[in-house]
Structure formats: C-alpha cells, structure tokens
C-alpha cells in the first residue's frame, strides 16, 4: 500500500466522483482509477460502489476510511517533522515512545520519513508516561509517541495517530452484539485487562466513576502480546490500538 493510493482514496471518499477526485489530486482519471483498483485488490474488496448517479462507499470502504485517514495523517505529520530537522547528511531525530505503545503502529509513518529523508537517523528510547513528559520538557527528544499525557504547555504540539478500541474473545457475549458501540454499564460489568503504564487507564477510571461505576481492573500486563494472550484465554476485555 502506497500513500499515493491512500491520498486518492481519501479524495474519492470525499467527492464520491472519480473525475472530481482526479482533479483534486492533480492526476488523470485513468491513473486515479488504476490506483484505487490496485488498493482494492490489496485490501480484498471494493471500496466504492460505482453507480452513475449515486456512487457510495461500500461497507469495507466505510470501515477502512478512518484507518486510512489516520495512516495518511501520521505520514503527513512525519514529513512535516522531518522538514523541521536541520538538513545534513545524517539528520538525528530523538524519539521517545511510551511503554504502552506498540511500535508496529509506527511502521507507516517511519517508512514515509525514510523515503523522504534517507539521511534521517533515529534514536528511539522507551519510557513511562512520566519519563516521556520529562524527556519532552527537557529537550532530550524532538518527538514523543504516547497516550494522553494529561499535561500541555506552550511548546507542545500534538497530533492524533490512532484510536484504542475494545477487544474481546470471539466467544465473549460482547462480540456477538450487533451494535458497534459498547455502553459504559456493559463495560463496567466486565473485568478490564490493563497494560502497565497505559495512559488511558486513569481516564477510563474517571469516566466510569463519574457515572457511578466502579472500574474492575482484572489483570495487568506489559506488552500487547501478553494482553492478546489473556484475551484469547477470555480473561476479560482489553483495549488495543487501531
């Protein structure tokens, strides 16, 4: 999957018209059509139902839209950040990543960064939410990837990269519901699996407590792999990045 394909799809999802999307992307309509078809082949299904008067996104297209938008935004942010790094044969970029973040989520923006700036040299470190904040404030790093830090200051710019959705075992009662959303009352009744240093944990607890529910933290793990293993064992519900 290439960012050019993603950009074409986002334009098409906005216009629902191949001609206008091609004009917006400054390409010919056949080129845009080929790129969309290639993307559909990679994803295994149609993204847009092509009708003369009422073209619309398919179910796959609707589900992929927010994910591809996040992917494109992350890649754009990576390029913008890279342009701010002083140009040299080797451009150092110090990055701190929260312990709760799966680095696999950053493959796409890092790919775009290296493509645009082959001389970029990453130095990646891990840390707790508190360590991430201190590294930013002290100027030890230029970029941090973390959940909600609970703090803001003048020199801090933030961009959303992904969302965290509820994950359960396929045999769990919540997995058999037709509704996409889960009510707080249903969530409060379930044991919650939490990652150590998970920034959203306190926010979730506050949200539940504000509605009169008592959070049920069942197990704590260090990695996404451990979390998925406990989900497979049907030990509760967890939150994974999308």
What would you note in describing this structure?
This protein has helices spanning 3-15, 18-25, 29-43, 59-84, 107-116, 129-137, 184-188, 200-210, 224-232, and strands at 48-49, 56-57, 91-98, 120-127, 143-145, 164-167, 192-195, 217-221, 238-241. The protein is α/β, with parallel strands linked by helices and 242 residues long. It folds into 3 domains: 3-70, Winged helix-like DNA-binding domain superfamily/Winged helix DNA-binding domain (Arc Repressor Mutant, subunit A, Orthogonal Bundle); 92-145, D-Maltodextrin-Binding Protein, domain 2 (3-Layer(aba) Sandwich), CATH 3.40.190.10; 164-241, Periplasmic binding protein-like II (D-Maltodextrin-Binding Protein, domain 2), CATH 3.40.190.10. A 3-stranded parallel β-sheet has the order 4-3-5. A two-stranded antiparallel sheet has the order 1-2. Strand 7, helix 8 (200-210) and strand 8 form a beta-alpha-beta unit. Helix 1 (3-15) crosses helix 2 (18-25), helix 1 (3-15) crosses helix 4 (59-84) and helix 2 (18-25) crosses helix 3 (29-43). The longest helix has 26 residues, at 59-84. The chain is globular. The mean pLDDT is 81.
Chart the SSEs and their pairings.
Blueprint: H1 3-15, H2 18-25, H3 29-43, E1 48-49, E2 56-57, H4 59-84, E3 91-98, H5 107-116, E4 120-127, H6 129-137, E5 143-145, E6 164-167, H7 184-188, E7 192-195, H8 200-210, E8 217-221, H9 224-232, E9 238-241
Parallel strand pairs: 3-4, 3-5, 7-8
Antiparallel strand pairs: 1-2, 6-9
Helix pairs in contact: 1-2, 1-3, 1-4, 2-3, 4-5
């Amino acid at each position: 999957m290439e960012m050019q394909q993603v950009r074409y799809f986002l334009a098409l999802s906005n216009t629902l018209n191949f001609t206008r999307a091609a004009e917006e992307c400054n390409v010919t309509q056949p080129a845009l059509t080929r790129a969309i078809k290639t993307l559909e082949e990679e994803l295994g299904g149609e993204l847009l139902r092509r009708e003369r008067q009422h073209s619309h996104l398919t179910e796959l297209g609707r589900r992929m839209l927010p994910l591809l938008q996040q992917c494109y935004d992350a890649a754009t942010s990576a390029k913008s950040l890279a342009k701010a790094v002083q140009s040299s044969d080797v451009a150092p970029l110090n990055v701190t990543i929260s312990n709760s973040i799966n680095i696999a989520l950053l493959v796409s923006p890092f790919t775009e960064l290296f493509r645009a700036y082959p001389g970029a040299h990453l130095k990646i470190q891990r840390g707790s939410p508190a360590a991430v904040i201190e590294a930013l404030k002290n100027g030890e790093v230029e970029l941090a990837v973390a959940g909600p830090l609970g703090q803001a200051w003048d020199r801090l710019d933030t961009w959303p990269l992904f969302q965290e959705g509820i994950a359960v075992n396929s045999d769990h009662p919540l997995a058999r519901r037709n509704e996409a959303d889960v009510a707080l009352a249903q969530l409060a009744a379930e044991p919650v699996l939490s990652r150590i240093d998970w920034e959203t944990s306190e926010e979730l607890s506050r949200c539940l407590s504000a509605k009169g529910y008592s959070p049920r933290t069942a197990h704590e793990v260090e990695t996404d792999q451990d979390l998925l293993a406990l989900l497979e064992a049907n030990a509760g519900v967890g939150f994974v990045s999308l």
